[in-house]
Structures are given as C-alpha cells and as structure tokens.
Design a protein that fits this description.
The protein has four helices and two strands, in the order αββααα. The protein is mostly helical. Helices cover 57% and strands 7% of the residues. Bound molecules: zinc ion.
Length: 83
C-alpha cells in the first residue's frame, strides 16, 4: 500500500484543492481554493472510514493539510525553465 502522503495528495487532487504539474508528475500546485480543501477533508474522512487509507483519521487530515500547505502556486521546475 502506498504511503499516507501519496494518498493525501491524490485526495487533494480529486477534490480540486491541488492540481498536478502537467510536465512534472510529482509536483502539486496549490489551487488556493478553501472550498476544495474542505472537500478534500470530507473525501479523506470517508476513505479512512472505509479503511481505504493506511492511516487514522487525525493523521490523514494532518497529511492533507500538510501537503496542501507545502504546495506552491506554481511548479518550481517549470518556473526555473521559464528564465
Ligand atoms: Zn512543472
């Protein structure tokens, strides 16, 4: 089973709180959308309840919060290549 962080990232992308850089598959881009973040928590909580997540509720909510907070508004690799 993949780690809780990877699962948190996917939940955030599903909810629309994060998107993936179209070029760099491992880079998340913050959509700055608090409603989508709420959706991410809701989807994540349901997945924990259904035992789809290898983490408990509190940990997984924290993982979602962290991965969104750590994401920038644009991809650092792409920004670098723009110069
Ligand atoms: Zn990129």
């Amino acid at each position: 089973m993949e780690g809780a962080n990877a699962q948190a990232g996917r939940v955030a992308v599903t909810a629309g709180a994060l998107s993936k850089c179209p070029i760099h598959d491992d880079v998340f881009i913050d959509q700055m959308d608090s409603a989508s973040l709420e959706d991410a928590y809701r989807i994540g909580a349901a997945k924990v309840r259904d035992c789809e997540i290898d983490s408990d509720h509190k940990e997984f909510m924290a993982a979602i919060k962290r991965i969104v907070e750590e994401s920038a508004m644009d991809c650092g690799y792409c920004a670098k290549n723009d110069d």
